[in-house]
């Protein structure tokens, strides 16, 4: 009996189930018939160049849109972070932080559907400059307040 079980064990080693979910490393062939024909039939250079130019233009356009969106989001986050420092009320009794955030949101919503790259770039640069100027003024004002406070104490 021991011999009988032993043969099954050795046969069981050789009879392993086939894995259907594993990737086929040898197959790097085309996915469509067009790809197959493009790989194996000579295409006119002009047509091939035109296709590549259209694809390159589309890729560049997407990259530009992605980068400007990323820059706009970065600017918006910087504005939100910077408004944390404006914690005093204005003449109406509203916190400057809330007023500035509301104005920033309104500006971004108005420019949301802008498609002209020059206008978008101009808005982004203007936003960065305005944010930096506001932070510089805040720092100067804080320095003046500290000096004034130290003058009374010292």
Folded structure, characterized:
This protein has 154 residues and is mainly α. It has one domain. It is 72% helix and 0% strand. The chain contains five helices and no strands. The chain has helices at 2-14, 33-40, 45-82, 96-110, 117-153.
Give the DSSP E fraction (strand runs of 2 or more residues). Answer: under 5%
User: What integer value in Å does the Rg equal?
Assistant: 33 Å
Give the N-to-C terminal Cα separation: 102 Å
Q: What profile does the largest beta sheet have?
A: none
Judged by helices, strands and strand pairing, the structural class is mainly alpha
Mean pLDDT score: 78
Tally of separate domains? 1
Which overall shape is indicated by the principal axes computed on the Cα atoms? elongated
SS summary, helix count: 5
Tell me the helix content. over 70%
Secondary-structure element string? HHHHH
Unreliable parts: none
Tell me the number of strands: 0
Domain Complex 1 LYR protein: 70-132
GO cellular component, one term: mitochondrion
Protein name: Complex 1 LYR protein domain-containing protein
InterPro entries: Complex1_LYR_dom (IPR008011), Complex1_LYR_LYRM7 (IPR045298)
